[in-house]
């Protein structure tokens, strides 16, 4: 490798960009960084990738990047300093073109902290022959949102976010990894058995990606040798896809219910809405309205129908009560004291707390007032 002073220096004053661009080689490299170190590296990539997109990376020139502490934290500056110091000793590694041998690189041999114009900075210098491993974008590269990456608190979530983003960039919604290769890319402890890998790595990444990146990552075994899982197939789903699948599952459950169980289910669903008693009676005896009630409720509760500000008014409109000029109750209606003459059971009292999906309702133990008379 060239010495740090063997070529001119490209200075990059920090200019925050919303999107990161990095080479797939870096995405699939093995990285030794901690969570905080990875965030510093993410900001370095933020500068390099955007310089590369603009064609501003010059060959055979070292690059120096300055990262303000304020981009990482407003407190605990000592942790930033410690992470920056450790960064100079951390390596990345990847396989050569034949895939037989590993190449190890220490990408940040020069790292220091300083105060400039009243701001604390991490100054990082990269050698010219290391820069392409990060910024040589080529035809295929990884693209992701900077703020989302910085919001992730697990290094495994950070790394899986890069891998997911690499595939999403080419609209690839499923892909396969040998378990050993993925464990190596994610720099998992050698002591981890498969169950440790699943619980401490994949499950943690899955949870964070759903909560903070709105990405639904799932996987299944695609190959086994004996009882040993050797390969996994990963899938990315959108919130819309997951909602549609949940609605389909609800519909299958409803279709398989005996008719005498559908009516009690409908009464439990109607307890989630402030419809008038007469409207509930009408739904319970009308097969078309019954189907609409259960379907629309499932779509609302599973998030397929968005921007529903008032569930009762929305349901009433779906059932056609607005066209009939029938008013909708805005408060729970008290059960009438006179005996019920309907062949269907009276509506149970409105339940407090969160609304319930079809699945939650079916899990409830049967109550006395849902038995058909």
How does this structure look, described?
The protein has 373 residues and is α+β, with helices and mostly antiparallel strands. It has 3 domains: 1-145, Winged helix-like DNA-binding domain superfamily/Winged helix DNA-binding domain (Arc Repressor Mutant, subunit A), CATH 1.10.10; 152-237, Arc Repressor Mutant, subunit A; 240-370, no CATH class. It is 41% helix and 19% strand. The protein is built from 14 helices and 12 strands. The protein has helices at 24-27, 35-53, 77-87, 131-135, 146-151, 155-168, 179-185, 194-213, 239-256, 259-270, 277-285, 287-301, 311-318, 358-363, and strands spanning 9-12, 19-23, 30-31, 62-68, 92-95, 102-105, 110-116, 119-126, 141-145, 174-178, 216-225, 228-237. Helix 9 packs antiparallel against helix 12 (287-301), helix 10 (259-270) crosses helix 12 and helix 11 (277-285) packs across helix 12. Mean pLDDT is 86; it is low at 330-353 and 368-373.
């Amino acid at each position: 490798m060239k010495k740090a002073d063997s070529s001119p220096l490209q200075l990059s004053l920090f200019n925050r960009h919303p999107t990161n661009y990095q080479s797939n080689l870096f995405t699939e490299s093995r990285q030794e960084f901690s969570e905080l170190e990875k965030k510093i590296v993410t900001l370095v990539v933020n500068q390099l990738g955007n310089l590369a997109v603009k064609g501003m990376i010059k060959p055979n020139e070292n690059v120096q990047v300055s990262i303000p502490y304020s981009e990482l934290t407003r407190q605990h500056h000592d942790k930033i300093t410690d992470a920056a110091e450790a960064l100079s000793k951390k390596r990345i590694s990847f396989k050569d073109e034949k895939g037989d041998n590993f190449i190890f690189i220490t990408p940040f041999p020069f790292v220091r902290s300083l105060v400039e114009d009243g701001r604390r900075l991490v100054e990082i210098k990269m050698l010219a022959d290391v820069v392409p491993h990060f910024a040589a974008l080529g035809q295929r590269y990884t693209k992701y949102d900077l703020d989302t990456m910085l919001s992730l608190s697990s290094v495994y979530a950070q790394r899986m976010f890069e891998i997911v983003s690499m595939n999403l960039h080419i609209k690839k919604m499923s892909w396969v990894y040998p378990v050993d290769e993925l464990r190596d890319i994610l720099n998992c402890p050698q002591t981890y058995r498969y169950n440790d890998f699943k619980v401490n790595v994949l499950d943690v990444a899955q949870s964070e990606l759903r909560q903070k990146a709105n990405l639904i990552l799932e996987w299944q075994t695609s190959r086994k040798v004996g009882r040993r899982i050797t390969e996994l197939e990963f899938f990315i789903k959108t919130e819309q896809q997951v909602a549609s699948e949940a609605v389909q599952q609800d519909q299958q459950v409803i279709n398989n219910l005996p008719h005498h169980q559908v009516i009690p289910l409908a009464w439990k669903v109607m307890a989630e809405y402030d419809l008038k008693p007469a409207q509930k009676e009408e739904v319970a005896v009308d097969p078309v309205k019954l189907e609409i009630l259960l379907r629309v409720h499932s779509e609302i509760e599973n998030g397929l129908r968005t921007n529903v500000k008032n569930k009762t008014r929305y349901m009433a409109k779906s059932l056609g009560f607005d066209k009939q000029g029938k008013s909708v109750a805005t408060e729970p209606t008290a059960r009438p004291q006179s005996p019920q003459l309907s062949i269907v059971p009276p509506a149970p009292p409105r339940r407090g707390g969160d609304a319930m999906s079809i699945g939650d309702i079916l899990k409830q133990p049967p109550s006395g007032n849902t038995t058909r008379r």
